[in-house]
Amino acid sequence: MTLATGVGSHPGDDQHAFDEAVRLVLGELGAAGVADGLPYLPEVPGRGATASMTGRALAVVAELGADLQPAGWRLTGLGGTPGVDQRRARSLLAQDLDGLEEQAQGYAGGFKVQVAGPWTLAATVERPRGDKVLADHGARRELAQALAEGVAAHVADVRRRVPGAGRLIVQVDEPALAAVLAGSVPTASGFHRHRTVQPPEASQALGWVLDAITAAGAEPWVHSCAKDTPLDLLRGAGARGLSVDHAMLSARDHDELAAALESGQTVALGVVPAIDPGSAPTDVQVTESVLRWLEMLGLDPDQVGERLVLTPACGLAGAAPAWARTALDLVLKAARQVSS
Prior knowledge:
Blueprint: E1 3-4, H1 15-29, H2 53-60, E2 64-69, E3 72-78, H3 84-103, E4 111-116, H4 118-124, H5 137-161, E5 168-173, H6 177-182, H7 199-215, E6 219-224, H8 231-237, E7 241-245, H9 251-262, E8 266-272, H10 283-297, H11 301-304, E9 308-312, H12 321-339
Parallel strand pairs: 1-9, 4-5, 5-6, 6-7, 7-8, 8-9
Antiparallel strand pairs: 2-3
Helix pairs in contact: 1-3, 1-12, 2-3, 4-5, 5-7, 7-8, 10-12
């Protein structure tokens, strides 16, 4: 049975938008009788920096303080006092989990949450002395380890709030990983690029986070919509699920995804545009594209079963609310048809 889910983000700029996103996700993917849906905790980054991918992750990290500067988020150091905006980010996350707990009462099934990964954080957060954490080997290590510790506590909190979530997935978002490995992340001045991080270090830091998720009893996935993300590195670091945009895949990526499915791991395949394309595909067209992809890989839909998950191509934050609903409806209908 093929499953359907979303990447995580939803449109809107206030708390009402978050509440509506939870209702949409639970109604479309988590309602009674919907066995092929995988609901998740929505993110609404339009509410501001404290609700952004980076702000959300800094609400989760342990032991590291952070504050918000005009240039963006900045660490205040190991054991540093959280700034007012980091405290607001933590408060907002707790408030969102309160809302989820209220709406998900009685829910039983799989559930997914999302958090930015260590390399995306290192590429977007500044160190106390300025410039990105990416520029400092020690700071990179501290940030990854603090994230790993915080994610474990986050998993425990989600389990307490959604006790029926037998299969709990943590999707680690790494949209900046390819740029980090390619040495293409700009410095603060914009005139230079940060040095390339070598694959062994990238794998080790990501592995700390993924291992912490596994040790906490959850299932680690890694998501990236970016081209040239090394899927073999993600699998080697401990990812048990790979979430990708079908349109961005190379021939090597197809081979790596086939190997993942054949080894019992999960592939979440982005098959519906994240923004209204004007001429929307039908569920039949989406289904046919998925079946052609499986045929190209030499895999049978019944063989892969629920290890194949259909999603929008990326997050829905830039979509109109109507398209967000349509996109989830399309992936759910297509998942059912792939399985039939």
